[in-house]
Amino acid sequence: MTRTKKNKTNLGSILKQVGITVGDIVTGGNVSKVLGAITGSTTLTPDHKEQLVKELQLVLSDIDSARDMNTEVQKSVNSSLLSKNIVPLLAIGVLLLFMFVQVAPMFGIITITDVALNGITNVLMVVVSFYFGSSVKGNDV
Question: Where in 28-108 does DSSP place strands (E)?
């Protein structure tokens, strides 16, 4: 299966133009900035603008539905101990990884690139937004 090159006006390229990451979006702080970049773009067709706004709504609603699913698992009496605790354990693991990556270079244990650090930070922001919510919901876009 060969991959075809996509048009460079997808949501990821819009985010690069605006200078923010997906981690910034899921915490709700820069959604209006992204929407402004999409609607104010002169290179995008109206159909493409509508498609990008829908994609942004999907990202935000996906986070919301994950929270709903986790809430149902926690409420269920039929859920196993593992299924109730796997999400918090993974969140703790991501937090510990982030802390290790921040502290370990100071002691010469590891060296890390800015790209890797940025990726781990974005994952941590997704975890934080999952637990503490976002100020913007998918249908607010």
Answer: none
Q: By the 8 A CB rule, do 137 and 60 touch?
A: yes
Q: What residue numbers bound the domain in which 98 lies?
A: 11-134
First to last CA, the chain: 35
User: Whole-prediction pTM value?
Assistant: 0.51
The answer to whether residue 140 sits within a structural domain is no
How many alpha carbons fall within 13 Å on the CB side of residue 86? 7
Burial 56-82 (b: 16+ CB within 10 A, else e): bbebbeebeeeeeebeebeeeeeeeee
Using pLDDT thresholds of 50, 70 and 90, give the confidence band for residue 113: confident
